[in-house]
């Protein structure tokens, strides 16, 4: 049995590209909010999520993921309301930032980890554009206050790296991590 330790509809959709038969169980792990190394933070949180679910299902393959946005070394999580989203978007406007997703697979008593980093370049946004986008509510449950696959598309000048990472689950990296762990998602179907 394969379990995705995330309630994110975006992660569920992306995992569906690799594996048709999986279940979702949202982790109750308490995530760390800050660290000196953003990549290590994302991986550590992915491990916490996967392990909390794996503890209840020791015979399952459990996948955990954690996505963060990093601008000039500062970690951006989910915003604190509309005003928080507007502030984050204003800071991202016209700049390059990184989206980092930590991955963890718990299987057969072992934990396998990886991280994916994608560079995202935002074009300049006006205060009015930011206010209109934030008011849609879309940014409120997203790290960095935006959805690449949603309304923020019009603000993104370019990306370098895996677009699925920016959406929340780097499909290619997850496939390679599973292979390293001896897991074939196609056989799990």
**Strand-pairing-aware structural class:** alpha/beta
Portion of residues in beta strands equals 25-35%
Low-pLDDT stretches: none
Largest pleated sheet: 7 strands, mixed
CA distance, first residue to last residue: 9 Å
Tally of DSSP helical segments = 6
The number of E-state strands comes to 7
Order of helices and strands: EHEHEEHEEHEHH
Task: Specify the overall morphology.
Answer: elongated
Q: What share of residues is helical? A: 25-40%
Mean pLDDT: 94
Radius of gyration: 17 Å
Report on this structure:
With 189 residues, the protein is α/β, with parallel strands linked by helices. 32% of the residues lie in helices and 26% in strands. The protein has six helices and seven strands, in the order βαβαββαββαβαα. Strands 1, 2, 3, 4, 5, 6 and 7 form a seven-stranded mixed beta sheet that branches. β1, α1 and β2 form a beta-alpha-beta unit. α3 crosses α4. It is elongated. The model has no long low-confidence stretch (mean pLDDT 94).
Structure at a glance:
By secondary structure, the chain is α/β, with parallel strands linked by helices. The protein is built from six helices and seven strands.
Write the topology of this structure.
Elements: E1 2-4, H1 9-15, E2 23-24, H2 38-54, E3 61-71, E4 74-76, H3 81-92, E5 96-107, E6 110-122, H4 127-135, E7 156-160, H5 163-167, H6 171-180
Parallel strand pairs: 1-2, 1-3
Antiparallel strand pairs: 3-4, 3-5, 5-6, 6-7
Helix pairs in contact: 3-4
Features:
single chain; 189 residues; alpha/beta; seven-stranded mixed β-sheet; 6 helices; 26% strand
